[in-house]
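Summary for the lay section of the report: proteins are chains of building blocks that fold into shapes. Here we show the chain for Peroxisomal bifunctional enzyme and then a coded description of the shape we predicted for it.
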Amino acid sequence: MAQYSRISGSVGLITLKNPPVNALSAAVRQGIVDTVEKALCDPQVKSVVICGQDGVFCGGADVKEFEKSMSGPPLIPMIHSIECATKPMVAAIEGSALGGGLELALGCHYRIAHSKARLGLPEVTLGLLPAAGGSQRLPRLIGVPAALDLITTGRHVTAAEALQLGIVDQVTDHKTVDAAVKFALSVAGKPLDARRISTYPCPVVTDLDALFEDVMQKVRQSARGAIAPIACVQAVRAAATLPYTRGMEREKELMATLFTSGQARALQYNFFAQRAVGKWRMPSGARWDTSTPRPVHKVAVIGLGTMGRGIAVALAQAGLPVVTVEAQEKQLMEAKRVMSDMLKRGAKRRGVAPPLDKISYSSNIQDLADVDLVIEAVFEDMDLKKKVFLQLSAVCKPGTLLCTNTSGLDVDQLASQTRNPELVVGMHFFAPAHVMKLLEVVYGPRSSPQAVATAMQLGKKMGKISVAVGNCRGFVGNRMLKLYTEQASFLLEEGATPDLVDRAIEEFGFPMGVFRMSDLSGLDIGWRVRKEMKLAVPGQSARIREGRRYSPLGDLLCEQGRFGQKTGRGWYRYNKPGDRVAHSDPWLHHFLEEYRAQHGLVARRIDQQEILERCLYPMINEGFRILQDGIAAGPEDIDVIYVFGYGWPRHCGGPMFYASMVGLEKVLERLEHYYQAHPDVPYLQPCSLLRRLVAIGSPPVQKWREVIKNLHSQL
Ligand SMILES: CCCCCCCC/C=C\C=C\CC(=O)SCCNC(=O)CCNC(=O)[C@H](O)C(C)(C)COP(=O)(O)OP(=O)(O)OC[C@H]1O[C@@H](n2cnc3c(N)ncnc32)[C@H](O)[C@@H]1OP(=O)(O)O
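The coded shape description reads as follows.
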């Protein structure tokens, strides 16, 4: 709703009230319509200020209402009537003015912002465009290039940048409403014709066609199949080329297509999923709101390889003092040089001083005696990690949380090396750790809720999206990934090429296909793990191991020294070691032909649909198993992990959401088909949770938690 009062004698004050972000729900829109009318009818009121309660102007349309049928006054005429008002309307912007919130402010005649406020039109991130006049008013106010940037990226700008761009008229460090009221008093009675943005001509752009062609090309490239950024460009083009009313018609037309699209549903689901994962719960019943984190003032990172360096830099950038320990003196010196450069580059980008003094470097584990939390990031070897945990348990003060950055080893085995296994959790970062947003917080059977709460809170402080998951081989992300990469290798055996598979995956929306990604990460990493597991045996090319289908193709490449980009050869050929541009490699095609001939395999034509189904559906099936096993609390956890850690296209929601969009019956039917065709691949057998969901009519993804809960309570 909205509250009305009169202050300073002649200023009508309208306060939006809908905690926590004053979203424009039907009730708020009705409140605005009613209070604006009241203010305009009150002869004592000469000007009007619109603000939001509790330091937030407005977080935009209420996204939760998008699924329901529309009720209440629509935004467009509401904003139009504010712009047409005959008394000056002033927006007092504190906190956020986003989406419909900024569109409301653009309908006002003046905008006063607090210096800490953030403004933006993030609709594109929800699969939409600013369709309450935002795509038509913003270019008229700040010009086409700047509006294109803001609308197609959805980025939030600071008040200072908003002032520079001309979005706001004044920035204050003091009480925003007071400043706005003072301003409103000063403009009372002044003419308003020149303040109505919709009447402005769009600033002229030289060679408009070239500008839009260029922008469209860039947007298409970065959109990876998302339709909203393209519609945003089209809407701004309408602003630049059509009169306002016709531009508004185009905006509406474009929005109508987006609003009901699967991509908008996926992106909006993802918005709420990101927030849902913060509300973690463990199978024991422990939860985010009943578990208190331990204070963490000083942190340590042990092992300064690529991961350790990134983690330490991310911690320092979050303002935490970090002690780093690396046993090898040469590696320590090299790490110090590289990390200092990383800190300097990061600081330059953010316009702050590099936090070099936050990190201290040591080769002595005894220096970790007084830290509150340690993140172990040594080589991925269980024996080595066990040794480190044993040492840490002896060296660190009682109560220190011991975390491992393993990407899939058993957290419980490491916990068993320590005096306090309840203080051990996994903190699985993704490379590069100072850039990637995802953190898997892995609890073992003995991890305490407090330890999980502490790691989750630390992740948040580091700006990560943290997801709490149970302990199993590969946790959530890598457990599912294994099947994806394995299926991709099987497809090569059956007739595909790395280029063909990668093209299908990239056209689906992943930034990189499975083979290109594998070349980037290094083929030797998986090879070493498979050798340790005695799955890969040099010189052997058997295609059945441990009773199930196995593809030795990756092992055979490694035996030839083809480790990917770093050796200049892998699934692709590179001009030199370390080069990033992958070229199709005739050697590899010949190698595949020979391999098939050796094993009596006849290459067949494999189409894009089969590639996607074979690569994605087994992953999804494993996702259902993960839910069934209670390793992830809900589909949102899996989807957030895949979007933020593995490049799953956000406009497809994540694997579990995607499954619900494709239709669970179809996923089930295709898995059954592929399992029948490949009975030596046990994981293709559809999981019982998937069967159960189909049996009860394929409820929407938001309802799966209930089904899982019932399933668990029946066990
Ligand atoms: C057929 C054609 C029909 C076409 C007709 C359509 C006409 C529609 C016209 C216009 C449409 C306008 C579009 C929009 O305005 S879309 C919304 C744009 N706004 C956003 O994207 C902002 C989203 N919110 C945020 O970025 C942040 O929440 C922020 C406001 C910056 C605050 O951040 P923070 O303080 O970190 O808090 P949280 O993110 O945790 O949020 C707190 C809780 O509030 C919920 N929330 C936030 N924003 C919204 C929203 N816009 N709608 C509903 N709910 C929202 C969020 O989920 C958190 O909830 P909970 O505590 O339960 O987790």
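Put simply, here is one thing we learned. Residues 20-21, 23, 59-64, 75, 96, 98-100, 122-123, 126, 128, 131-132, 255-256, 259, 272, 275 surround L434P2JQ (CB under 6 Å).
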